[in-house]
Amino acid sequence: MLDKNLIVGVYDNEDNLMSTVGRLRKKGVEIFDCFTPYPVHNLDKEMGIKRSNLTVGAFICGSLGFLSGTLLQFYMMTNHLGTFKSWPMNIGGKPMDYLMLPSMMPVMFELTILFTAFGIGILFFIRSRMIHGKIAAILDPRQTQDRLLIAIEPGHLGISRDELNQILKEEGAIELRERKDGEQVVINV
Amino acid sequence: MGHHYITEIKEEKFEFTTKSRIFVTAILVLGIILAVIGGIQVNSNAVDSTEEHAMAQVDHHEENAQDHSSGEVHEMHGEQSSHASNGTVRIWANLLMNAYYFMLFGMGAMFFWAVNYVANAGWSTMVKRVVEAISAYIIPGAILLLVILIAGGDHIYHWIQYQELGLVEGDPGFDKILNEKAWFLNKGWLYAGVGVITLAWIAFRFILRRFSLKEDEEADTKYFYKSVRYSAGFIAFFAFSISVFSWIVIMSIDAHWFSTIFSVYNFAVTFVTGLTVLAMFVLYLKSKGYMELVSDEVIHDIGKFMFAFSIFWGYIWLSQYLLIWYANLPEETIYFDARVNTGFEPMFLVNIFMCFVLPFLILMMRNAKRNPKVMILAGSIILIGHWLDMFLMVMPGTVGTSATIGMLEIGVTMAFAGLFIYVVLNALSKASLYPKNHPYLLESANHDVGV
User: Fold this and answer.
1) In A, which residues are within 8 Å of B326 by CB distance?
2) How many domains does chain B have?
3) What is the pLDDT of residues A160-189, one digit of tens each?
4) Range of the domain at B207
5) Which residue in the set B2, B3, B326 is minimally distant from A92, CB to CB?
6) Does B328 touch chain A (CB under 8 A)?
7) What b-and-e string marks burial along A17-49, b requiring 16 or more CB atoms within 10 Å of the CB?
8) Would you give the distance in Å from CA B304 to the centre of its chain?
């Protein structure tokens, strides 16, 4: 993101940011991203961000965990897979076949949780490209403090630059900036 | 403003029309008719089935005597079937089971009501009046339950007959376990205990409901804070009382058996069915054009609760089963022996599927919780599943292996369902559908689950 050319509008008020986003979206402007110091409710809906598929990933990870919990125990504790060789551990005098299913439940449950939790964590880091040692892409240090930023790519405008500047200003942007080749310039106050 | 905020809530009132009154009464009457026909049928066949039943009990008894040190423990089961005809027992067991089950709906709603106050939760305020209406059933429900306990207790609980004999050590048929439990398993606890507990619940409901209605007239937060205090008191009392309630009404049917998690298990049933009934009523009202301001977000959250507490039920169910299965102590396994190694086995498995596996899989997806049809489907599965759950708790210890689901069972359930729906809709029509002046009303109207 650091090498992208962006037009940045700076706000000090979430309502102004929200209305800007709504107006720009109506005009067909593609919004690159918004940066806010705290989560703004409904901003994602306003920006038209699609719901993440992370839950599908969580389901797949959970199913994998459930399967591995099941297979692991059938592999080790029973002879249904023809693998019952060296470590017949009889626990509590229970039959060593599928009838011991109740005692397998806790392990199945725990592995489902384990795979889901780790899987969804790792998938989240991959999806949001948060890799250890990556330089934080910060447009303005105050985006984590008291400023709300909207970023638009000049290539995906759909309207003229003048009109965009006009809208941003009308909706109460306190500053307009442009980032070109990694340099940030204030273009309008 | 890009997003539309609701800032004003129009007053809405549910009208319990004559047409729907007749319809609900028809369910009730049809249920009673079916129950009566079923009851007559059952009693006319009673001669054959009593013999069968006695045979089954003897087999059962012998089986248990082998792995139990004192064979006398189960003497009473056999005695019971000769004491009263099987048909009568079956009728009373059905009445008890349904009276208890529908009572749990009301208590689940009560708990949800109180827990939202204590947790300072705002999202559910829009459906609060529906919760209040569901809890209205505990008044007729408690009366019905008490009548059934007093009139039919001797047919249902074999320990009542035993305590009346007044045996002492050394007498033939003496039962040490029942004698030592006599301080709790007696008519005093059964009648007065259940009476006092239900009366206290009704008192809590009366107070909370009064605050809720007063808040409508007078815009003052003092009713909210008072409700919080009484809700906290209710939850503390509820935790203890629902345990005692479930022990004396349901667990004492198998008086020799005990399970320390039984009351938690019953609480799980209470809460999940209460929430499901809430979801069903809200969806019904929405389909009739009421409560349009209750957004998908609120229903989504109720769906999450149904999903979560179905899992909780499964967890508690397994906790109870697994420990008993592992330890393999005869006095504990007797309970599951009567449910797994008999004709109840298919029902036993279906119960797990309907109460845990199916709700878990159906309600897992986000869109399922936002789709009324899927929610109704999942809700029906949960309610029927827990009905089976009740059936499995009550029937093996009372009717025995000859218990089936016939016209009597369906009729009694329909009658109770008709009464329940009538009471709830009637209570719903008594006050405005949205609580006025509740401090969290707008928060609930603008509720957003975020995903």
Assistant:
1) 92, 94, 102-103
2) 1
3) 888 888 888 888 888 888 888 777 777 765
4) 18-45+82-434
5) B326
6) yes
7) bbbbbeebeeeebebbebbbeeebebbbebbee
8) 20
